[in-house]
UniProtKB/TrEMBL annotation:
Gene3D superfamilies: Methyltransferase, alpha-helical capping domain, Vaccinia Virus protein VP39. GO terms for biological process: methylation. Keywords: Magnesium, Metal-binding, Methyltransferase, Transferase. Pfam families: Methyltransf_7. It comes from Gossypium darwinii (Darwin's cotton). PANTHER family: S-ADENOSYL-L-METHIONINE:CARBOXYL METHYLTRANSFERASE FAMILY PROTEIN. GO terms for molecular function: metal ion binding; methyltransferase activity. This is Salicylate carboxymethyltransferase.
Amino acid sequence: MEVVQVLHMNGGVGETSYAKNSLLQQKVITMTKPITEEAITKLYCSKYPEEIAIADLGCSSGPNTFFLVSELLKVVDSVRQKIGQKSPEYQVFLNDLPGNDFNTIFRSLSIFQNKLRKQLGPGNGPCFFTGVPGSFYGRLFRKNSLHFVHSSYSLHWLSQVPQGLESNKRNIYMASTSPPDVLKAYYVQFQKDFSLFLKCRSEELVDGGRMVLTLIGRRSDDPSSKECCYFWELLAMALIDMLVEGLIEEEKLNSFNIPMYTPSPAEVKYEVVKEGSFNIDRLEVTEVTWNAYLDETDLSDAFKDGGYNVAKCMRAVAEPLLASYFGEEILDEVFRRYREIISDRLSKEKNEFVNVTVSLIKP
């Protein structure tokens, strides 16, 4: 599986699209907003730059893409008005892998820009947008050209499926039944990728530039703990049920593994210190419930079903990977079964995603 070619969220604005099923990710951006606001404020107040270049890495498509950008610009505009500074000009780079639905982003760009101008009012500097397709596990921008980098719910994705997972049979990710060599292979790939990411961004950021990164992670020292692997284990259960019924091939299932790693705060800190390009300003852990609609009001009957909500969210994320490997014909059935399994588990227990957020400075 060539991850760069097949890893992307479901495009468009249909019922299974990421745009329609990314409330969870928006809530995470909102939860980590104090850290992001603090970082962009410190950046602006350190030099009062006449222009600010911002990169959102793993921007995907849908409302979250512009939600993050608008929050950053509103913070800077509020600060500069209080101190009587002229507004900087903004350059915003929206990055994701080539399969991302950039068309939907740019079709809605003019609407967003008009809305932003009304929110900020007169005196706000122009804001220019550029799409940047490509892997962030490599250089994307000119040297010393960025002031602020943001990435939310993207860096847990690896550049490739780790090597040496042949013994991870009937698992699609790290699991309680995964052999130790599988856990090590995942960790080694994470170390390689995260270190390369930091090195590339250090070359692209100006001195004093800042970066805020949020990943799905874990509190536990165990990389196969339930808090970070359970949602994939339940999807594996649905696939195994289909295997037993002859709907998918065993060889296919045994060779399919998710290219993802959910680090602990200690692992993130260790890699940052070891790579050496950044200082850590803040490192925090938060949790968000699997069912993003749990506290929402005025829901339709369908969205009152936690299994329905979680399965739709996961489908928007995982469908392209599954379709590239097993074919599109299994998708409706596997996510129907996944919904039933999730509904059963949510009726018995509370499940949450653990988020690791790190705010970094290039000295």
